[in-house]
Every structure is written in structure tokens, then in C-alpha cells.
Amino acid sequence: MFKKALSLLLSMMLVVTSLVVTVMSVSAAGDTYFVSGCEELTGYKWATTEATCGDNVMTANGDGNYEKVFTNVAVGNGYQFKVVKNDGEEWIGIGDGYEQNFTFNVKTACDVTVTFNPTTKEINVTGDGVDIPKDLVIDHVTAVGNGFGEWLHAKDWKLDADVNNLTETSEGSKVYQITYENLDVYENYQFKFAANSSWADNWGLPESGGAPLNEWFDLTYNGQDMIIDTDEAGYDDGYDIVLTLDLSNFSYATKQGARCKIDIVTGDKPTEPATEEPTTVAAPTTVAPTTAAPETEPATEPATEAATTAAAENGLTVKATSNLFPEKKIVLSPDQKTFKVTYVFQSKDKDVLDFQWFMYYDSNVLKPTDNTNKSTSFEYPSQGSYMFNKKIPGEIGATGTNLSLYNSTSKEIVFASAEFEVIDPSATETTVNLDAQVLRLSKVDPDTDYTITEEEVEITNFGLNQENYDKFVTVCKTDSVPVSSEETTVAPTTEEATTVAPTTEEATTVVPTTEEVTTVAPTTEEPTEVPTTEEATTAPATEPTTVAPTTEPTTEPTTEPAPAADPIYVVAGSEEFAGLKWIGDPVGGAQNVMTKDGDLYTKTFTATPAGKDYQIKVVKNVEGTDPETGNKVWNQTWFGIGEEYKDNLTFNVTDTCDVTVTFNPATNEINVTGDNVKVVTDLEVEYITAVGNGYEGWLNGVAWGVDAASNKMDKIADKVYKISYTNVVSSDSYEFKFAANGSWAASWGLPAEENGAPVGENYALTYNGENMVLDTVALGYEEGTPLDVTLTLDLTNFDYPSKQGAKAFIQVTPQAPSDEATITASSNICQANGTGTYKVGDKVSVYYVLDTKDAQVEDVQWKLSFDKDALELNSLTMPAINDGFVNTDSYEGSASSLSLYDFAGGKKLVEAVFTVKAAGETKVNLNVVDLTLAKLNADTGHADEGSEYEAVVNSDIANDIFDNINSEAKVEAYVEPATTEPATTEPATTEPTTVAPETTEPTTVEPATTEPTTVAPETTEPTTVAPETTEPTTVAPATTEPTTVEPETTEPTTVAPETTEPTTVAPATTEPTTVAPETTEPTTVEPATVAPETTEPTDAPATVAPTTPDATSATQAAANGQSTADTATPDTPANGTSSNAVQTGNASMAIVILLALISATGVVYFTRKRFTK
Predict the structure, then answer these.
(1) Which of 471, 672, 866, 1038 is most buried by a 10 A CB count?
(2) How many CB atoms within 10 Å of residue 941?
(3) Cα–Cα distance between 817 and 840 in angstroms, integer?
(4) Strand 385-389 vs strand 429-442: parallel, antiparallel, or unpaired?
């Protein structure tokens, strides 16, 4: 009996032991590891889950270690990674707490093997070309931050901005310094220091927050963003910030020893260091925030340069805000009742296609002035289609479209601008807000000079596209300045607005109105049509009416004090020579002030490079007083050469040399000398270009393109040039001039008192004259009438010394009306458009072919749009779907079937047949609202749920849609379908001869496939198409870095620049078992767990996941940041299934069950023996 009991007990123990061993086995087998790191190494940017890490899962090698081999890794520095356990349960790096990213370099391309020991948490990297750095080699250090206003030169989290590189105070000192001057008070200047233009090595604070001012403080390697708050500190506008980084005691092994000092400098800038540490740093003396600016201005500066905040105590505070542009605040003095707000924009790679904005203000406090109008509100008011409205109190609106694009890549442009008058003197604060609702960019097709549809991108469309913003926007800044007796928008005041050069480079600045130029400015290099920005207003227009004055102003003597002060002479000219574009006042052009040498004045420009058509004038400035305001003003006289000194002096430099400009006030004679200087005495014409405003496609739609190849004229005889334009629509606003050799140095227009160009007769031209206006409406051609225009320039009798003898001839003829229509078919699911040209009355088929490859269509919903004045719809069908719904009244349709629709190989999804009603260009667009694909389950005959793929949802297409479908739009001549009647021939058997079958031929009416009478349901168009919340009002780049947002599934929150490498990754303290670093990136960029698209660091706890080396966009996961946060929840697998780690335990569980069954069998066996006995 005892033996039986013992046997039973042993059997039960066997069962329990088996279960324990098996569970332990399952637990051990369930751990999985993958490598997460920089995209250059892993192919994925700091993946957070096994489902998103691609093929970076590590393999057990049999000795207890795991490894992953990366083949043929390219040469590079700063490769970084961490090992991730169980879908983000733990992020494992190196160093204390395993928080630092593992960093290595590859000296020669090779295979790289990463090995990990789960027991010791040791990571090794091996490879023939692998080099693991033991010390930090610094090539340069860059200050990187949010670039608000002029902070960091407006570079928003730009690692490679050379302008923000710090200077080593002395060779080998490892102390670096940079100064930012004349900054405005602001509470959120953010920054970090980064080495070698990479987030691999950077320094910040342990936690994102305010940095100490005017004292040394320690830095954290791959730490969080530092914030400078000069508002709370009590400073006034106009101070300097000096940043000093001391790495002299930094240890790469411990990552300790870096420190920083932020000096706020106001008033006079001392030359001695403020402190003794570090001894190698010339740290500026800091001044308490309350220190006032110097009471007096330098004697040579005009009163217009006085600080605008001097009397701001009782003035109005104005905040200029926007959803796209940074905030700007100014304080008006009590006597300042007018101010101007300008939003400045510049892009790269692509130019502006269209935009729409509304500027909102409090109509009880402010009122737009007369200077707020269409011509000043936008850089190119005469190009494309531009509409402006300020009639609604409290709101100014504008919208513009130019299929030939608005040039926004070559310079900063005025995106939106308005001038306001303060009408409520009791108001203390007000806001002007710009809502940039739509802004799209594109590229021009050189063959058509129109936008390339496939290149069109949205910066904002009632919601910011952060990825496109970071990729294509280089400048977004806000400028608000007082406009009062001290500041105005135009200089010189005698220049007419129409003579301002169209393309000014500094649209955001305002020229002081105190510069009352009593004489005409020099002939600047650009056409006369443009917004009134600083450059435009001050630049002498080489075009028409901007020529220098013929005499000195008669008011000059009365405004000069007695005894008269010595005049100040300034050289003004082309930017390539003078460094400034036609700036003639002694303040703005201080660098070009001439020195008195006896009776002459001279200015030497050293090392002037070789170049052609350098141009100058000499500007006489006499200090005077404005009789109305009492303010100091500069009365100016511009001197050139030729008759009445109105022509610019033009010269060439054949090789680099010093160039000296000499002016004789007694004779007004200008001389230019230098070893390689050649003054132009005759005009050598290489080619002539017709240049103008490009309005409504005029001049091929090119606005003031002085070197536009499409507008180069044909040389039809010696010194005679001709060009013809067809299909020019009649208008009263076509402006143009002729320019030689792709430059404004030599151009021809009309005299200042004229602008209307004669048609059908030869007329004399003025050298560097005013814009000519071709008004075909005045000729009797109704606006919009197609015309042919031919321009001829005759220089046969042109004499360069006298600048006389040029003639022009304009021929305008009506164009025979066309009966052809060009139809373009497009769709949001088609990568290319279809097009075709047909005559009025033709029937045309527009259809869209869809190929779903190895899947099929489960459901689809769409809407067609077209111009009903140009096309008449005959039929609208879904040829490959028999049970779909089509509504020919609303031009929409839908279909849905669990049995799926077969589109493999390509079939017509939608076909519309039109009759052409009108000539011209027209578009047909198919907007697919929803499209779901799936694969058929052969067993059920229905869609396999696991295979469903949402290609389009609410008109938004999936990023990888074109990996899953092929599609194209087609326009073809319509061919009536064959409607042959069914053969009803009599039976072959001749008898009975009288039995002609009664089944006469069926009337073979047109195919019954015309539009189904069952019109599509009224709900075919989803009611949720345009989400009301699509436009975040805080889109502006300044908000790109929400410090508290953590992407739920983004990459390790440690991504962004702040902790570019998860040096602080895996929390040294308890590690959240499910978290990827929340704030590894710049805390200012995006959610703490999301790296700003602008590669800025985010603020993340120092104990986070991978400290990824580069920051990502605000919409990306923090996977790009350093591992400095450990609270983010890891992503779940993309397909909703559990990870492979769980699946590895299934086989072990089967073993457990098997052992349990064996043990149970033993128990039964012994029990049965007992009863048998």
C-alpha cells in the first residue's frame, strides 16, 4: 500500500515538475530581440516594434547570444543603435543603466555584426571596417534651435546651418562661442549644441526647461532643450545673446564635464570677459536686465534709428500671429499710430502655385490704411490670378493662383502684408492674425511653362503638412514695424510706386520715411512693377522713371540748417559691386560712405571680382529737418553720368582688382579707376529679351525674367530684333520693356511722362526708361479676345554716348477663333494625366483604368467633376461593375460587394462620354473618395478580412497606394459600341417553305448598358469628406515641437535631436516594460516622443529609449530621438496580431500538455493495479 501511495506521489511530482520546467522554457523561448537605430544602418529610423523593424530581428546563435548581420554597410561616422527586447519592453544600450546608444564608425564598406548577450546585456559590434570611437573628435559645433524671429538667424532646428557654427576662442581651447545681436524680447528661445552637424553628440539640460542666464552651468550629454526666457528676466528689445560652450573638461568616456554660459548683453558692449572662467573665453560682460540703452545715439546716425521701445510705456502692444508664421510682438510709442505687418516666405526646389489667406484684426482698435491695397499686399499682385479684399471690417482676404508659378525660391517674398492705423487710443494690446489656409508649391514644365501636376505639394490645406514644410520651406518669418513720422514704406518719396523694381529681396523691412529724397533715384536694375518693400523702394530702377534727378531739389537749401553741414556722399549701385542694392543713405549704406580727399570724395572697393555691367551712382545726402514732424531727414541728390546726370555709370572688371570711385562735387563728375577696370563706352549686344509682368500668360507667363530664354527675341537683321506671341488674351495691363544681355544695365522703355505704348507705328524709346503698357482693350478688342502680338526693337540708329535712336514697333492682330478643345483627365489615384484635343461637336470618351494587381475591389465611391459650359455629359458608367450605382445628376457613383470586383490586369473603373461644347482648355477630374481592396477567400467566396487594404479613405490616399495598384486616365475619341442585331436568319432547313419564323429580329436598341436607371443613392458621397478640424490653427513652424505630445506608435521617443542618441535611453531607473522613449527628441519640436521634422531635439526624460541621432518631424514617431524617455507605449503589430515572441511559446506548450498526459497515464495505471488486486 505504501509503495502504491509513493508511486502516486511521484507521478504527481512528475506532472508538477514538467509544468514548471515547460513554463520556464516557454518564458525563455518567448523573449525576442531586434536592433533599432539610425536609418542609415537598419533601414528604418528607430523602429519601436518588431512589426515595424523589418528584417532587423536578431537570431539566437546557439551559445546564448543573439546576433544580427548587416551586409555591405557603407562608409560613415556616427552609426547608432540599441537592442530592443520584446517589442519595446526594454531598450538596451551601453554605459550606466544601459542608457547610451552604441555608436560606431565604418572606415571601409563591410558586413557589420551586432552581438547581444541577454544575460550580461553586453553588446558587441564587429566587422573588417568597424571602428568604435573612444574619444569625441570635434570638427565644429553648431547652435541648433527653434530659430524664432532672428534667433539663430531664423534657422529652425537646422543642424547644417553654417551661420550658427560657434568659433573656437583659441586653437585647441575646446571653448566655443557665438553672438546673436539685436534680438527681441521672447519667452521661448530654444536651443542645444550639436557637434559635427549631427545629433549623435549634443548637449542640453537634464530636463527641458529654462537655462540660467549670465552664469556657468553644467550640460547633459544628449540632454534636453534649453530655453532662454528674456521676457521673464525683464529685458527690453535690442539686446545681444552670447552663447559659450566649454568642452575643455568634457570626458567622452563618462559624458561629463561640458558646461555653458549664456550672457545677455545690453547697452555698450564691453570688450573684457565678464568672468574668469574659462580663462580662454572672452565672455562678454553681462548687464542687468533693467539697464537702459545709451541715452544718446551716435552723432552720425539719423533720428530714425532710435529704439522704437523708448516711449512704449503707454503705447499699444501689437502681436502679429499666424498658423504658419512665427509670432512677432512690437510696442508702439504713444505718438506712433500706424504700423505695418508683413509675413515673409521663401521656399526651395519648388515655387508657389496657389494660396489663400485671411488676415484678422480688431476693427474697434485698428483700421487698414490706404497703403493696404492689392499692389502692396503680395509680392506679385499682377501675376496669375490674384484677388484682394479689405471691405469686410475685421478681415482682409487674398487668394492667388499662377499656373506658371510665383517665384519664391530665388528670394524672400512678401506673402501677406497690411498697414494699420490705430483708431482706439485707449487700447493697450491687440492682435493681427494671419490664417494661411492654403499654400501649394510646384515646379514648371519647361516645355509648357505651366505647373507639373505630379510635382504639386501642399504646405497647408486647412492643416499643415509638416513633412512638406520641413522639406520645401526655408524662410517663414513675421515682421511688424511702426510706420509713423519715423518710419515709412517708401524711399525716396519722389519715386512713383510703378517704378519700383518688381523683385525685391528684403520684403520684410521698412525704409524710414524720414529719407525724403527730393530727387529721382537711380535707374535700378529691375522693372518698375512690384510691392513697396525696402529694396524695391530704395533701389534705383534702371527701368523707366527711376532715373536720377536732373537737378538738385529746390527745397534742399531751405531744409539745410545754417550754417549748412558738410554733405555726406555715398556710392550706391548694383549689389554685386556695392554689396548693397542701390542704398544711398549714410545709415543703410554706411559701408559705402565716401571719404573727403581735398576737394574730391573717394571710396575704394577692394578685391572686386571680375564681372560685367557693374553700375553706380553717387548720392549726396544733406541733413535737414522735416517741417511737419521736426524729425531729422536726409535730402538726397543722385548723380550719374550723361545728360542731367541721369544715367548709371557702367563698367566692367576683367580681373580681380581694387576699384576706386572718385566724385568731384564742383563738376558732378564721377570717375572709376582700377588696374582691370574698363568703363563701358559702347554697347555690345549679345541678345535682347522682352521683359514684363507676365500677366495672364503675357510674355509666356514669365514675370520680369530679364534672362528668360522663352522671351529672347530673334535677330532678323543687323541690330533689329523681333518676337511674336500667339493667343494673347486682350487686356489693359500688359507691361514690358526690352533688356540687353540678360541684364538691366541696358534697357529701353518710355519717358517718365508716358506709359501707353503706341500700336501700329514706329516710336522712339528711352534708354533705361519706364515700363511700357500695352492696352489692347483701348484698341477695341474686348477683354479676353485672343490676339497675336509682335514686338520689334530697332537699334540700327542707337547711339550709346547719347543713349538716343532706339525705336520700337508693336503689331496686334485678332486671332481666328479656334474650334478645338483640349481636355485633360486627372484623378487622385492616377499618377499621370490623360489629354487629347478635339473639335467642338466631337464625342469624347474620358475613362479611368484601374489595375488592382493581385487583389480585387471590395468597395469604391467616387465623384466626377467637369466644366458644364465646356462639356455636355452623354453617359456615365462603371463598365466593369454590373451592380454599382451611378447618379448622373450629381456625377457620382459607388459599388460594394463581399464577393469582390475583378480589376486584375486593368479595367475601366469609370467612363464618361461627353460632347464638346466650347473651344479652349478644360479639365475632367475623378475624385475617388473611398477605395478598399481585398483578396478572395476561395472557401467562402467572400473577401478575406485579413487581406483588406484601404487604398483611399475620405479622399486621402494611402502612402503606398501605388505599390498596390496601377491606374491611368485616358481621353479618346468616342466610338459608338457595335449594336449588331442578333442573327435571326431563317432555319437552314428550307421546309416548311412558308414558315418564316414569327420571331422577327429583335429590335436591337442601343446597349442596355447606358446609365442604370437606378440612380446612385443620395448618400453615395460620404458625409465625412472634409473634416472640419483639418486646419490646426497652431500650424506655424514655431509650434512644430509640442513638448508634451508623445506619438503612440512612433519610434523610440528618444528620437529627436535632444537626445539624438539614446545615451539617456533605457531609463536607469525602472524601465517601463512597454515604453519606447517618449522624448528622445527635441522637446520643442513635437510631442516629447516625437522628433521634430526639423531635426530638433525633444525634451525627454534622461532615462529613455534610443537616443536616435536625428530628429524627425512633429508628425513622426520619436524613433529619431535619443533614448531619453521611458514612458511611451510601444506600437502594436501593424496587422493587429501578436508578435512572434508570443508565437514561439506555442510549441513548448504542446510539450507541456504531452508530459501532463504521460503523467496522468501513470496515475491511472497505478490506480487500476490497486483495484485489480
Answers:
(1) 1038
(2) 10
(3) 12
(4) unpaired
- Phi, psi (deg, nearest 5) at residue 134: -100, -15
The amino acid that residue 15 corresponds to is V
What is the three-class DSSP state of 382?
A: coil
Cell numbers representing residue 855 in the block = 487583389
- Residue 434 to residues 321, 437, 1039: CA-CA distances in angstroms? 6, 9, 15
Rg (CA), the chain: 38
> Beta strand pairing status for 669-673 and 657-664?
antiparallel
Q: Quick one: three-class SS letters along 426-492?
A: CCCEEEEEEEEEEEEEECEECCCCEECHHHCEEEEECCECHHHHHHHEEEEEEEEEECCCCCCCCCC
Picking from 999, 912, 902, 914, the residue whose alpha carbon sits closest to that of residue 943 is 902
3-class DSSP state for residue 928? strand
Task: With beta carbons less than 8 A apart as the criterion, state whether 695 and 382 touch.
Answer: yes
* Closest to 699 measured CA to CA, from 988, 382, 398: 382
Separation between Cα atoms, residue 323 and residue 595, nearest integer Å: 49
- Tell me what pLDDT residue 733 has: 86
Q: For the whole model, what pTM was predicted? A: 0.33
Q: Are 282 and 238 in contact (CB under 8 A)?
A: no
Please choose, from the candidates 267, 182, 184, the residue with its C-alpha nearest in 3D space to the C-alpha of residue 230: 184
pLDDT tens column, 546-572: 333 333 333 333 333 344 568 999 999
pLDDT in tens, 137-166: 898 999 999 988 889 998 888 888 899 999
Residue 643's φ and ψ, nearest 5 degrees, are -60, 125
Q: Which residues of 943-967 are buried (b: 16+ CB within 10 A; e: fewer)?
A: beeeeebbbbeebebeeebeeebbb
Give me the numbers of helices (H) and strands (E) for the chain, helices first please: 10, 64
Task: Provide the sign of the torsion angle of the four alpha carbons 527, 532, 536, 538, taken in this order.
Answer: positive
